[in-house]
UniProtKB/TrEMBL annotation:
Keywords: Hydrolase, Signal
Protein name (Swiss-Prot/TrEMBL): deoxyribonuclease II
GO biological process, one term: apoptotic DNA fragmentation
Family: Belongs to the DNase II family.
Record flagged with keyword Transferase: no
GO molecular function: deoxyribonuclease II activity
InterPro entries cross-referenced by the UniProt entry: DNase_II
Catalysis performed (reactions): Endonucleolytic cleavage to nucleoside 3'-phosphates and 3'-phosphooligonucleotide end-products
Source organism per UniProt: Anabas testudineus
Gene that produces this protein: DNASE2B
């Protein structure tokens, strides 16, 4: 009888410890606040074809749902996947701690004036010596400073936006930090505690506003999530003066790419078939539920392989426009069939060469 009680008590303690670890670990979190390996959101534009929406509704995707799901939450509330993931930074548990690193970067940060010279990139890093997440997104003026609480900018309502969150172990996040050196992000709020300086000297420099020296003008790095999902990070500095999609990524991946970026009239680069592998501009998107919109109302930056057998999807920083040939930026590419199917099926119309 006593042995049975001891076994029961031990079982309860183990369950408690597991739940405690699960709730406190630094990780991407889904719509319910549960840890996930990765997720993607597609924030819908306000101006759709024959419809004006709220500008704060979004589609959600992770490995468990398998296809785009319309979220019950709005992106301008602290509920939902992004709010749940960033919550530790806004509750004060993490950003006041010396046991974790965090960094907010955005070429168009909230509150502050725009400054030329930084990479065209937006994201958040948060991790400790065990693991953490990299949230890369396309939303200007986001996220808000930790002490201000979770705020979504009104400017982020008009256009479509995307965000990719991946949970990585510490060694992978060290690689990501080195990749960011090429892009030269504008860090507007960050902390690299003293105990991390030996591992992250370049990130500390970036946080201080310094620009570390580069040995080349671009870099490719394989990354693996905590669950072993493979991602490939392509980053370029301003010294690589070319369209990242046509001049580099399509050729390395050996795939023709359909590219969705913000297509402002008079600024966009045309579809390009001058190299062995081609890039073609997507002009119209159709998400589930007959959500139809033009690329000039979509501020997201992503691409998919035209051929289904290539199964390539990339999300990133740069638009296909002339001015951004001279900007630092990157792409995170996946070969996951769930991600590929979700993005490939929403291509409603693209311009061939």
């Amino acid at each position: 009888m006593m042995a049975a009680r001891l076994r029961f008590c031990l079982h309860v303690i183990i369950l408690f410890l597991c739940c405690t670890v699960s709730s406190s670990e630094i990780t991407c979190r889904n719509e319910a606040g549960e840890p996930v390996d990765w997720f993607i959101i597609y924030k819908l534009p306000r101006y759709k074809i024959e419809e004006v929406g709220s500008g704060v509704d979004y589609m959600y995707l992770d490995s468990s749902v398998g296809t785009w799901q319309k979220s019950q939450f709005m992106v301008n509330t602290s509920q939902g996947a992004i709010g749940n993931t960033l919550n530790p930074l806004y509750t004060g548990k993490v950003y006041k701690s010396n046991s974790s690193v965090y960094a907010f970067y955005n070429d168009a940060p909230p509150v502050l004036d725009y400054i030329q010279g930084y990479g065209h990139t937006k994201g958040v890093l948060l991790f400790d010596r065990s693991q953490g997440f990299w949230l890369s997104h396309s939303i200007p003026h986001f996220p808000s400073f930790p002490e201000r609480g979770y705020l979504y900018p009104s400017s982020g309502k008009v256009n479509g936006q995307t965000a990719l969150c991946v949970t990585y172990q510490y060694d992978q996040l060290l690689r990501i930090a080195k990749q960011l050196v090429y892009i030269y992000p504008r860090f507007y709020n960050c902390s690299v505690p003293t105990v991390f300086l030996a591992d992250l000297p370049q990130l500390a420099q970036l946080c201080e506003g310094s620009k570390p020296q580069l040995t080349s003008d671009k870099s490719v790095e394989q990354l693996f999530s905590t669950q072993g999902e493979k991602f490939v990070s392509f980053v370029k500095s301003e010294h690589f003066v070319d369209d990242i999609y046509t001049g580099w990524v399509a050729q390395v991946l050996d795939a023709d790419l359909l590219v969705e970026t913000w297509q402002r009239q008079g600024h966009e680069l045309p579809s390009n078939c001058s190299l062995p592998k081609h890039t073609m501009n997507i002009k119209r998107i159709r998400l589930p539920g007959s959500v139809l919109f033009w690329s000039h109302y979509d501020h997201s930056k992503w691409c998919v392989s035209r051929a289904y057998e290539d199964q390539v999807t990339c999300l990133g920083d740069l638009n296909r426009e002339k001015a951004q040939l001279w900007r630092g930026g990157g792409l995170v590419c996946s070969f996951n069939p769930v991600i590929y199917k979700a993005f490939r099926q929403v291509v409603d119309w693209y311009i061939g060469c």
